[in-house]
Amino acid sequence: MAEDEQRPLKRLRTLAADPEDGALLAGSSLGPPGHAVDLEHDSEFWLEDGNVVLVAKNVGFRVYRGLLTAQSLVFYDMFSATSLRADEQYDGVPIVRLYDSPVDLRHLFRVLLPKSQKDVLKDTYNLKTEFHVISALIRLSRKYQIEDVEKRSLSALCATYATELYRWVDFDSAIDEKIDSSLSQQ
After folding, report:
1. Higher-pLDDT residue of 21, 142
2. Cα(117)–Cα(114) distance, rounded to whole angstroms?
3. pTM
4. pLDDT digit string (tens) for 65-119?
């Protein structure tokens, strides 16, 4: 085989639908260029003047690229001019596909792009009912290298759950005593 006739080392990506949820698994666009993208606007983070659309599954988040790049080197690299393709656009705005849960992204955006003065990561956070929020923040802040959010999320987690074994043993014993006393009262 001549040198210029060699096959590429990698296969070209193609679009494939996930049979469980219909999400696109591979490929570089949501559909053929020039065709309408079937996209659900996120009710909380669809900003009409946003300059990038992040798509997780079929949910679109239209947000401000500059606010995300200022807080994350991963977003900075992702949004670099060379990585945003002209054929991946929605209403004239570049699309970037993410493989995260839309619910998890919404939790992250509430911290990075707050619409109120409410601090999602306050010290008295109720992790007993909102563990999934802190879990999402820890995972995504680590993935997108957002150090301050990761540190605050881990602090919130540690403030609620003991990090030493003896405290877990004491906690377990206290629960056993409460169960025993409630059973004896019946």
Report:
1. 142
2. 7
3. 0.67
4. 999 999 999 999 988 865 666 668 899 899 999 999 999 999 999 999 887 766 6
> Which one, of 54, 47, 49, lies nearest residue 75 by Cα?
54
Sequence letter at residue 56: A
| 127 CB neighbour count, 10 Å cutoff | 15
Q: Which residues of 135-162 are buried (b: 16+ CB within 10 A; e: fewer)?
A: ebbbbbbebbebeebbebbeebbeeeee
**What single DSSP character describes residue 40?**
E
d(CA 77, CA 98): 14
- Distance between CA atoms of residues 172 and 170, nearest Å: 5
Domains of the chain: residue spans and CATH: 13-27+35-181 (3.30.710.10)
Residue pair 47/63 in contact (Cβ under 8 Å)? The answer is yes
Residue count of the chain, please give it. 186
Spatial contact of 80 and 52, defined as CB atoms under 8 Å apart: no
Q: What is the DSSP letter of 62?
A: E
